[in-house]
Amino acid sequence: MRLLIGFPLAALLWLGFYHSSEYLQEQPRLERETEHLRVRLPVPVQLLYSAGDNYSAANANVFRGLMVTAAVTEAETYRVQGQLQRDAAWLNPWHEDNYYVGAAILPWNGQVAAGQYVLHHAARARSWDMWPAFFYAFNAMYFEHDMNRAAEWAERAALRNARNAPALRSMAAAWYERGDDPDIAIRILQAMHAEARDANFKLLLEARVQRLEGLKALRGAAAAYQEATGQAANNLTQLIGYAGLQALPVDPLQVGYRVDARGVPQLADHAQAVTNSESN
């Protein structure tokens, strides 16, 4: 009996919603309205509108996102687009267009979290596809400054594409190296070295480990210097003689080391990034 009552009621609700939507679509719109997004319906309503088909509901969201032109710079439109693409990723994480649009548009328009949500879902669902994993890794590095997570997902991308694996693993090694904990980075790079087959790649990993060993020694000396003097070091030379540091370490990659604004030794390129972020 409940099924006999429930089905006609659901059908009537869906028909009512459908005709209401058709009516709204026929109403006059402001000029360029199709380029802006204002409304994101709750997921249950999206499913109701799509007769329960989650793939159709996801397609509708992606289509709405594709209608936004490159000329639109309004933050609210991209906020709504981020919500729509998150919904699409939940409804159909395998959707290829959704993750490509998410990677190309969302993070570059202030919707990093939404873009990463879309890419993470796609990377986990599309286990054969290197690109969502790679885009997720890139965003973790470039927008979120999480080098360890970036390197982890670059390695996952490498496992999915033998042709691009060497380049992806080299990228992962560089991002691991730029993480903020030398001990963790050294262990990861050593594990990668043990698994590496390419001789040139193994040499590069050895150089990166040596570089991080130098950073570790400098940080130990910096901690000893601060404890002894009560102030942070202003330059690397001040650290000689502390914590057994007899001379400044030589960077085999010839990039060098620097002291950031907090007196903490960093890899030269990473220190510059920290200084810039603190000055903004």
Structure in a nutshell:
The protein has helices at residues 2-26, 43-49, 54-66, 75-91, 96-104, 112-125, 130-142, 147-159, 165-177, 182-195, 199-229, 268-279, and strands spanning 257-259, 265-267. The chain has 280 residues and is an all-alpha fold. Strand 1 and strand 2 (265-267) form a beta hairpin.
Structural overview:
- This is Tetratricopeptide repeat protein.
- This protein has helices at 2-26, 43-49, 54-66, 75-91, 96-104, 112-125, 130-142, 147-159, 165-177, 182-195, 199-229, 268-279, and strands at residues 257-259, 265-267.
- The chain is mainly alpha-helical.
- It folds into two domains: 10-126, no CATH class; 180-275, no CATH class.
- Strands 1-2 form a two-stranded antiparallel ribbon.
Low-confidence stretches: 1-7, 29-34, 273-280
Radius of gyration: 26 Å
Look at the structure and give the mean pLDDT: 81
Q: Helix count?
A: 12
Which structural category do the helix and sheet elements fall into? mainly alpha
Q: Biggest sheet, in brief?
A: 2 strands, antiparallel
Into which percent range does the helicity of residues fall? 55-70%
- Beta content comes to under 5%
Question: How would you describe the shape?
Answer: elongated
